[in-house]
Amino acid sequence: MIPTSYVFGHESVIDEVATNMAAFSAARCLFRSYSLVKNVDQNTGILIRCSRRMLCSAPSDSSSPDAHVKPQFMDSEVQDILTRITGLNLEKVFRPIKQELKPPKYKLMTDAQLEEATQSAREQAQRLLKMPPVLPERKPINDVLSEDKILEGMDTAKYVFTDITFNIPHRERFIVIREPTGTLRKASWEERDRILQVYFPKEGRRLTAPPVFKEENLKMVFGQDRHEDMLDLCQVQFEPDSSEYIRVHAATYEDLEKMGKYDLLRSTRHFGGLVWYLVNARRVDGLMIDMLQKDLLQDAVSLVGLFNKVHPHSETAQEASSQQAYGLDLLKIYAKRESQRAGYVELALQAYEQTSAESTV
Amino acid sequence: MAGHKQSNRPFYRIVAAYNKRARDSKYIEQLGSYDPLPNIYNEKLVSINSDRIKYWMGCGAHSTKPVAKLLGLAGFFPLHPMTVTETERHRALAELAEEAAPEDGVKQQQL
Fold it and tell me: CA of B10: how far to CAs of A162, A164, A179, B73, in Å?
């Protein structure tokens, strides 16, 4: 229903949010079960407010006097740019998923009805393309509630106590473990995921991670060009801030960038994540060349714009802001300053200019 | 605790029930479960619906001894004194077994 804790794994953030009652009750709803995101945009407003509050609570940069706030994945501008770059290839979004075979239904429509149907299909596609959140890795839980030496040696097995009250969000649930040594500690994140899957099973998730997620098997899957299925599986199996999730995603994005197969993800909901990863790692060259070769000038320009927003202290950003450059000039500045494969990018730019000149002529 | 057994596989439910009823008969509400056999990760899973337990305790229900022990282990109740006694007895038995075992071992060698 509603997207869950986008930036709320951290306890201090929960305290921050709790100070404002209205936002707290809204944010409490946000913690609900993490399911495939089909939400309405009104909640992103609350999220963005809360994410901004977290940025304020974090220690501000003591070094830079202008105290620039680093754009997060969930900022509306960033999301806009990323959705535009993702593209909306209806054919690909609605390509047949493995389902039961049903005979196709034919409807007789006027032109107007056809347009309405295409429009609703577009909206449906936009909802399906909602990007899964990108979160920092969660910190391990090391809380010991009590140490009872008198209980040592009582049993050879651990006792895991779960609180199954219905209306608590999963992140706030109490899952404690009494060790055979007598210590009562909170369960770690992996144990929590497993136990929650036992008592509140989620569809598609398995108790132990399928062996596909090991390194060798991942490589095999990438060899078969099934990155998207891989990412979907990862989405279902792991929480978005677990180390496994981040590791699998990083491996997928690395492989895609090495092979240059950006097209595989182009009209899916994982494209935004890919672009965000590359921009943060400053390796946007391959993607840039790919876009120029496919004549997607607007996308390339927005990509450079995003890069400038995320790394405002880089040479590209400073030159761009000083010259107020737009369009092709932005790309030229980027090609000169920042890219490692400057030659390729400039060649691609020239080729694009030639083709556009020919087409106009 | 109501246990609905298949043979050699015990499994208990923590329930709210009338005092005079048989152990496995109709209960008012189920408040959790307890699986006494450890799983592959060597854990015994216990689930507790703390909200409803608080309600029933507020309505005047009393907990039985095994449930009180479990909740004491969980930290929901203070630790039950019998748990401590049982642990001590268990440890004493273990020590006796240890002393007996090396003696047997020595005797075997002598023989």
Answer: 19, 21, 22, 20
Task: Nearest by CB to A176, from B41, B75, B84: name it.
Answer: B75
Distance CA A40, CA A259 (A): 36
CA end-to-end span of chain B, whole Å?
50
Size of interface A-B (CB pairs under 8 A): 78
Number of helices and strands in chain B (H, E): 3, 4
Is A7:A240 a contact under the CB 8 Å cutoff?
Answer: no
What number is the average pLDDT over the span A204-210? 85
The Cα of B22 is separated from the nearest Cα of chain A by a number of Å equal to: 26
- Coil vs helix vs strand at A146: strand
Q: How far apart are the first and last CA of chain A?
A: 52
ipTM reported for the complex, 2 dp:
0.85
Question: To 10 degrees, what angle do helices A297-310 and A328-337 make?
Answer: 50
**How far is Cα B43 from Cα B21, in angstroms, rounded to an integer?**
31
CB contact under 8 A, B44 and A164: no
pLDDT tens digits, one per residue of A277-304: 888 887 777 777 777 777 777 777 777 7
B42 sits in the region (left: phi over 0; alpha: psi -120 to 50; else beta) called left
pLDDT of A58 > 70? The answer is no
- What is the model's pTM? 0.67
